[in-house]
Design brief:
The structure holds 2 protein chains of 2 kinds. By secondary structure, chain A is α/β, with parallel strands linked by helices. Chain A has one domain: Rossmann fold (3-Layer(aba) Sandwich). In chain A, about 35% of the residues lie in helices and about 20% in strands. Chain A contains 8 helices and 8 strands, in the order βαβαβαβαββααβαβα. In chain A, helix 1 packs parallel to helix 4. Chain A is globular, with a radius of gyration of 17 Å. Chain B is of the alpha+beta class. Chain B has a domain of about 80 residues: hypothetical protein PF0899 fold (2-Layer Sandwich), CATH 3.30.2320.50. Helices cover about 25% and strands about 30% of the residues of chain B. Chain B has 2 helices and 6 strands; from the N terminus they run H-E-H-E-E-E-E-E. In chain B, the strands form 2 sheets. Chain B has a 3-stranded mixed sheet with strand order 2-1-6. The two termini of chain B are about 35 Å apart. Classes of the chains: A alpha/beta, B alpha+beta. Chains A and B meet through strand 1, helix 1, helix 6 and helix 7 of A and helix 1 and strand 6 of B.
Chain lengths: ~220, ~120
């Protein structure tokens, strides 16, 4: 006997993501799902962001890694709330893992929550966690061919940060081609080239964030 | 690699449904996977076979239909199937296109063993 189902395989995750979203909305929290490969500078970007938003927005961070609490320790050193989630092998965060992290946070004391996903250009794109926006970060040392190789990630993200542009003179990276390829996959994608080392481009990123994440209680 | 997570969700749906039908073994599962989704069919089959071992869905065959990447252009109203994820209208070069299909990760139906194979 055949049983007709017609159902999203990840429906159970989407239900939890929606519950997270309602929780965020009740507390007026703007939530970013920060995604990118290993070593592109996700945690460093967070550190620079924390420094610049200190006193203006109440930030909190959820760190997703397969193992270790190294990233959480780096964030905690800046004096903001951080929860480390170790996925124990899973290559992405899902709605349920993030929900577990939220239970350890004082949601009433947060304006902006950044969830740093596991370093990976494939899997995190398929799993909603209840975020407002998916933010992607690439770096010039990875090569300019990434958009065409990992299209889904670019398709689901609203904004693309291109990090380490201070290294452009030293690497073979066609910035024009990279931007054109990213925009063929996602024509509305905003692209911000920046360097977490020199600070170039960071103002534009911070402005982008401040426009979206309100300062309800800062 | 997230095929294991996808296979686990699939297994939960399938086992839940099979239990509602008296715990009959599941023999076949029809899936629809979009061209743009990042699931690799063989990796999904491998993960499902490993996770379903000793359960009522052990040995079930995954029939995977790949759903093409289809877009509609808001400017010229044309509909196109794309091989590559280039979200620009092939007819008028408009960038205001909407995705009609290609993101699917769906279970369409499943078959349980009662000898009746009619759809």
């Amino acid at each position: 006997m055949e049983i007709k189902l017609v159902k999203d395989i990840l429906a159970a995750n989407n239900v939890i993501a929606e519950q997270n979203r309602q929780l965020f909305s009740q507390h007026g929290i703007y939530v970013i799902n920060l995604m990118g490969g290993p070593g592109v500078g996700k945690t460093t970007l967070l550190e620079r962001t924390i420094e610049r938003l200190k006193g203006k927005r109440r930030l909190a961070v959820i760190e997703g890694d397969i193992s270790t609490a190294r990233d959480a320790e780096r964030i905690a050193a800046h004096g903001i709330p951080v929860v480390q989630i170790n996925t124990g092998g899973e290559c992405h965060l899902d709605g349920n893992m993030v929900r577990g992290g939220l239970e350890q946070m004082d949601l009433a004391a947060i304006d902006l929550l950044v969830v740093e996903n596991v370093g990976n250009l494939v899997c995190p794109a398929e799993f909603n966690i209840g975020e407002d926006t998916k933010v992607m970060i690439n770096s010039v040392t990875e090569g300019d061919d990434k958009p065409l190789k990992y299209p889904l990630m670019y398709q689901v993200s609203t904004i693309l940060l291109l990090n380490k542009i201070d290294l452009l003179p030293h690497v073979t990276f066609d910035k024009e081609r990279f931007c054109v390829d990213a925009r063929t996959i996602n024509p509305r994608m905003e692209i911000i080239p920046l360097s977490c080392t020199t600070g170039e481009g960071l103002d534009r990123w911070i402005n982008w964030l401040e426009e979206r994440a309100g300062a309800t209680g800062a | 690699m997230h095929e294991f997570a996808v296979a686990q969700s699939l297994l939960e749906i399938v086992e839940h449904e099979a239990l509602r039908h008296g715990g009959t073994p599941v023999t076949r599962i029809w899936l629809r996977i979009g061209h743009l989704s990042s699931v690799v069919p063989d990796a999904l089959r491998f993960a499902f076979a490993a996770l379903s071992r000793d359960g009522i869905a052990e040995g079930a065959v995954l029939e995977i239909e790949e759903v093409p990447l289809r877009i509609r252009c808001r400017a010229c109203a044309g509909e196109f199937v794309l091989e590559d994820p280039c979200f620009v209208c092939p007819q008028c070069a408009g960038a205001e296109v909407e995705l009609i299909s290609g993101r699917e990760l769906e279970i369409d139906s499943m078959e349980i063993a009662d000898g009746d194979k009619t759809r």
